[in-house]
Amino acid sequence: MINAAVFGAGRIGKVHTHNIASLPGVALRYVVDVNPVAASELAGIYGAKPATIEAALGEQVDAAFETFIGDSILDRGNQTAASRAVVDFSQDHLLRRDGAI
Q1: Which single residue of 7, 55, 75, 77 could bond 71 by disulfide (Cβ 3.0 to 4.6 Å)?
Q2: pTM of the predicted model as reported, rounded to 2 decimal places
Q3: Number of compact structural domains in the chain
């Protein structure tokens, strides 16, 4: 089972979150957004938890999916993110792959 976190709970984030949560073998664990209400609402639909970046990239997350436009969590120097698979949907490419997906 791949434990996943989604970053971004806006319009595009909702689409990608639905698709990620529907994948066999993937458990959506966290939704992160600058708007905590949006993160909480979207997380609740899929049985996930709203979280901060640090909490979402904890040891229980294998893959992080970015759905927002802006600096990647890797670009921000997040050392925890550097050890996870990070998919940046705003750029349509895999930023880092460590065998998690």
Answers
A1: 75
A2: 0.73
A3: 1
CB 8 within 8 A of CB 66: yes
Token match 């970053």: residue? 7
In which residue are the tokens 């040891």 written? 59
At 56 the pLDDT is 83
Please report where in the chains the tokens 């600096």 appear, as a residue: 71
pLDDT band at 30 (very low <50, low <70, confident <90, very high): very high
| Confidence check: pLDDT of 21 > 60 | yes
Q: Assign residue 97 a region (left: φ > 0; alpha: ψ between -120 and 50; beta: otherwise).
A: beta
Q: What is the CATH number of the domain that holds 49?
A: 3.40.50.720
Q: Which of 69, 63, 67, 56 is nearest to 30 (CA)?
A: 56
Structure tokens at 65: 């999916």
The Cα–Cα gap between 48 and 71 comes to 24
Backbone angles phi, psi at 98, to 5 degrees: -120, 30
